[in-house]
């Protein structure tokens, strides 16, 4: 289940940070709308690396080096 808190809960940020785990980010709202996500450094690094891989695959596909479907088959992406 999503862990959603108002950004005002950051007044007691230790309580909010205790709820952040690798598998469970905390979503913060401002004026009732989603605004921020708090994730662990490990999760941030994983997401960033995943995005870099996707960007490299796109560039490779555009240059004709490898198609995205071929990469998916080859690497199980």
TrEMBL record:
It comes from the Bacteria. Antitoxin component of a type II toxin-antitoxin (TA) system. Belongs to the phD/YefM antitoxin family. The lineage of its organism: Bacteria, Bacillati, Bacillota, Bacilli, Lactobacillales. This is Antitoxin.
């Amino acid at each position: 289940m999503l862990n959603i808190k108002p950004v005002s809960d950051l007044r007691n940020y230790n309580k909010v940070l205790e709820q952040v785990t690798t598998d469970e980010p905390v979503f913060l709202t401002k004026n009732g709308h989603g605004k921020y996500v708090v994730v662990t450094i490990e999760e941030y690094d994983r997401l960033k690396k995943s995005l870099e891989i996707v960007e490299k695959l796109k560039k490779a596909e555009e240059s004709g080096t490898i198609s995205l479907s071929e990469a998916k088959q080859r690497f199980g992406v």
